[in-house]
Automatic annotation (TrEMBL):
Family matches, as SUPFAM superfamilies: alpha/beta-Hydrolases
Domain annotation BD-FAE-like: ranges: 33-215
Pfam families: BD-FAE
Keyword Metal-binding: no
Keywords: Hydrolase
Record-linked Gene3D superfamilies: alpha/beta hydrolase
Protein name (record): Alpha/beta hydrolase
Amino acid sequence: MSEPLPPGGRPGRLLAYGPGPDQVAEFYEAPDPSALVLFLHGGYWRARYDRSHARPLAAALADAGYAVLLAEYRRVGQPGGGYPGTLEDVATLIDTLPGALVPDRPLILAGHSAGGHLALWAAARPSLPAGAPGAAPATVPIAGVVALAPVADLRVGAELGLGDGAIEAFLGGSPASVPERYAIADPTGLPAPAVPVTIVHGEADDVVPPAVSRNYAADGRAALTLIPGADHFGVITPGSSDWPHVVAAVNTRTYHA
């Protein structure tokens, strides 16, 4: 990895959307917020990475005038983590908490790395087949998506061996061994979301190569911002030279969704 994760910041108000200790989210309030940003942290869906490293980002977005819901979810290495539990958690969270928190403001789905994958997947839920994890459409309208250095193409990511086999661990196999899971979980293989999508990716990212985002955006399904010289973690580090691109993307999806 090119840089360590940002240090943890102040926690938000803890809210539960399920019975498990990781079926929670932290709420960061803002006076008269322009939108609610539901943020999904990264870490290749693995248990050793939790939401704490994204707290500085959540606090900074709240300071910028957005209400923020920093999500946790069950991850690989925990009971119920991986496929399908991680996807089910994200769907349940979206359907449970946002509508009661800031009901009169747009809902922006956002995420970084594996969390960017989850945000893109969640926006495509209406296209999932009946019976698939998260197939029921979100009960709260989604205005747009902002994905930061997302693992946007699971098949290509698996071929590249991203995260030392993280995608195979998440889905329980390779594209050849469990193709039905990739068909459900891979945003690039699903129809484009019906809402506007922005991707922000560093051109020098050595954790999730920018080619993964280029592949997702190739057919025009997303507005892609590539930041010259930027690595994987600058986009989640408030105060970095990459941070203004993130705020601009959230602002664009808030007002031009």
